[in-house]
Amino acid sequence: xxxxxxxxxxxxxxxxxxxxxxxxxxxxxxxxxxxxxxxxxxxxxxxxxxxxxxxxxxxxxxxxxxxxxxxxxxxxxxxxxxxxxxxxxxxxxxxxxxxxxxxxxxxxxxxxxxxxxxxxxxxxxxxxxxxxxxxxxxxxxxxxxxxxxxxxxxxxxxxxxxxxxxxxxxxxxxxxxxxxxxxxxxxxxxxxxxxxxxxxxxxxxxxxxxxxxxxxxxxxxxxxxxxxxxxxxxxxxxxxxxxxxxxxxxxxxxxxxxxxxxxxxxxxxxxxxxxxxxxxxxxxxxxxxxxxxxxxxxxxxxxxxxxxxxxxxxxxxxxxxxxxxxxxxxxxxxxxxxxxxxxxxxxxxxxxxxxxxxxxxxxxxxxxxxxxxxxxxxxxxxxxxxxxxxxxxxxxxxxxxxxxxxxxxxxxxxxxxxxxxxxxxxxxxxxxxxxxxxxxxxxxxxxxxxxxxxxxxxxxxxxxxxxxxxxxxxxxxxxxxxxxxxxxxxxxxxxxxxxxxxxxxxxxxxxxxxxxxxxxxxxxxxxxxxxxxxxxxxxxxxxxxxxxxxxxxxxxxxxxxxxxxxxxxxxxxxxxxxxxxxxxxxxxxxxxxxxxxxxxxxxxxxxxxxxxxxxxxxxxxxxxxxxxxxxxxxxxxxxxxxxxxxxxxxxxxxxxxxxxxxxxxxxxxxxxxxxxxxxxxxxxxxxxxxxxxxxxxxxxxxxxxxxxxxxxxxxxxxxxxxxxxxxxxxxxxxxxxxxxxxxxxxxxxxxxxxxxxxxxxxxxxxxxxxxxxxxxxxxxxxxxxxxxxxxxxxxxxxxxxxxxxxxxxxxxxxxxxxxxxxxxxxxxxxxxxxxxxxxxxxxxxxxx
Length: 848
Prior knowledge:
It comes from Patiria miniata. By secondary structure, this protein is mainly alpha-helical.
C-alpha cells in the first residue's frame, strides 16, 4: 500500500488520536502515527503540540522511524527551542551508536537545528565524528561544520574545526576530500575577512586531482572551483593540471563541464601563445561547449551566456562552429537573441556569406523583436568587417524593398551607423531612404533619418523641404527627434545660408521660446550664440569631423571580462556582472587571470622591451619651456586680447555666409551678457564680470556695450589693473588656478555658498542673497536680487563708509530670442533675478 493514505484523512479530533498512538507500546502503531504527523506537517497543519510525544519516539532502533522523528525535530525545533533541549541527550547518544548511518544522521540533524542552545552541545559529538573511522560519517560531519559556521562563526574558529577540515583534505576517501573542500569553500565565501582558509600547494593539488576522478559530480564541481583559485608556478605545472582536468569535459553534468572549462581557460593564460599544447587544448574545448547546446532551453541559455564570455576572450575556440549557433524555429526568444549575439562575434570574412544569408532569413520571421535584432545584426556585421560592408548594405536595401514598416525603420537606424563608419562611401542610397520618409513613426528611426538629411544636406536638393516637414509637428515629437532636428537644420543653414534663414530662425525660436525641455533649450541657446557671434566658429563646431564608430562598443571591458572568466559556471557569468554587484555582503576579493611568465613566448620582443621601460608619470600641469606661450591660454585657446579684425559681437556673419538672418543682426538680450563659464567671472558668482581685468573687457566686451548703454548712464571709471603672472592671457583664469600673484592668495580659493540675507517673506516678495570672497587681493561681494513682479532695476554707485563700491548688474533670467540688445529693463517677466558683483578695495572688511 502507498503512503498516499496519510494525506487523505479529514477526521476531527485527529490530534488526540495521534497523541494516543505516539504513546502506544506497539512499534508499528507508533510508526504509523509518526508518518501521519509528518504528512500533516507537510500539508501545512500545525502539529507542534505533539512535540513531546514525537521526541519520546526517538528512543528506537528502527532507522526509518528515527529518520522521521529527526525530520519533525528539524522543522519544529526553532519554534520550540526549550522543548528541543529534551532531544540533546538522544543526539549525543546516537553520535556514539555502532551503526554509522545513525551516527551520521544524528550529527546531520544537529547541524540543521538552528537553535543556539543545541549548538553548544554539538561541538563534542561533531569533533568525534570528524575523526570517525567511517568515511560516510566524516563527510557528513565536514558539511556540518559549514552549517555550524553559518550559525556561530566564532564558535567554529575557537573550537578548531577549520583545522580539522584542513586535515580531511589528505583523507584517503575522495568523498571526504570533496566535502572538506566544499565546506572550506563555503566558509571562505562567508568569511568577512576574505582571507583564504586553506593554502593550495603541489601536494594538496595532487590529492584533489586524485579525488576528482572518484567523487560525485557535485564533489567534482567543488574541487574544480578550488583548482581554479590556484595559480601554478609555471606553464609546465599548468599544463600538467590541464591534462588531468581535460577528461571532465566529457562529463554528462553541464555544471562539471563548465567548471572544467573555467579551470582550463584560466590556466591557458599561462601557456606560451605558440605552444602546441595550447592549440590542442583549444580544439578540445569546442566539442563539449557545442554539446551543451543540445540540452533543454534553460541549460542552453546558461551555456550561451558563458560561451559569450569565452568567445570574447578566445574567439578561436569556436570559430569553426558557426552553424551550431544558427537559430532554430522552436528556440525561445532568449536563446535566439543570445545565439544572434554570438553569431556576430564569430562573423569573419570567411563566413560572412552564410551569416548574411541566415540573418536575411531571420528578418522575415514573425517575431518582431527578433526581426529588429536581426536587422541590427546585419549593420553590426557591416561595421565589424569592412570588406563585406558593401554586401551588408545591399542586404539592407533588399530588406527596405520589402516595405515592412519595422524592418525599414530598423534598416535606416543601422544605415546611419554605417554612414558614420564609412563616410562618403555609400551615400548613393540616400534617395532610396528618402522614399520611405512618410512611413517612419518611431523616434529612433525618425532621428536617424533627420541625421542623414542634415549630414548630407548639400547632396539632397530638397533637404530644406524634408526638414520643414518634420518641423510642422515639432512639439509633438520625441525629445530625441527634436534635438536631432535642431542640429540638422543648423547644419543645413551653415551649408546653405542664403535660402534657409527663416527655417533656422523658426527652429531656434521653437527650441528656446516654446520648449520646456532644458536640454533642447540649452542646445538652442548654444547654437544661437554661436551663429550670432561667430558663424565661422559655429561651422567648425557643428560640422566638425565625427569620430568613426567601432564594433567594439558592446564588448565587455577587458578587466571585467578577465574577472568574469574566473566565474564561469556561476550566476556572475549569466548576469555578466561580478558577484559583488548583486550579492550583499560579498567580500571584495577580486579574482584575476594569471599572467604568463616573462620569456614564455607570449609577447613579441618589441612588446617585452616596451614593457621593460617604466613610463614616467604624466604631469598634470607641465612647465612651459622658454619661448612657449602660456599653458592655460594654449590649452583653452582663450585669446582674451583684442583681435586684429574681430567682428562686432552683434554684427553680421563673415564673408562667405551671406547676410545674417533676421534675429542675428543684433544678439538677443542675454547673449551679449556673459554667462558663467566664459572666462569673465570669478568662481562662485555665476558669471559676473570681474572689474580687475580691464584688458579683457577692452578686447571683448561680453556685455555688448556694457551696463551703461543699457541703463543710459555715463561711463564708469575703471580701477587700475592688477599685475598678472604669465601675461595678459592669465587674467581670466589666474584666480581659478591660483596662479596669479597678490595678497588674495593667502586666503585660498574657497567661496562660501550664497546665503539668504533678506527672505522673500520679509521683503514682500523681494529676496536678496549673496556671499563674500577675496580674489586677487580684492574683496568681492556676489549678490542676487529676486523679485516675482515687474519693477525697475536701478544701479548706482554704492558707498561703504569712505570707500566706493563699483557695481555692474545683469539679469540672470534667460532672454527671449526676439529681444534685441536694447531690450528694456522693464520687460514683463514672471521671475526676475538681478546679480551684482561689488568690488571693494582691499582695505574694506568683508563684513562691510
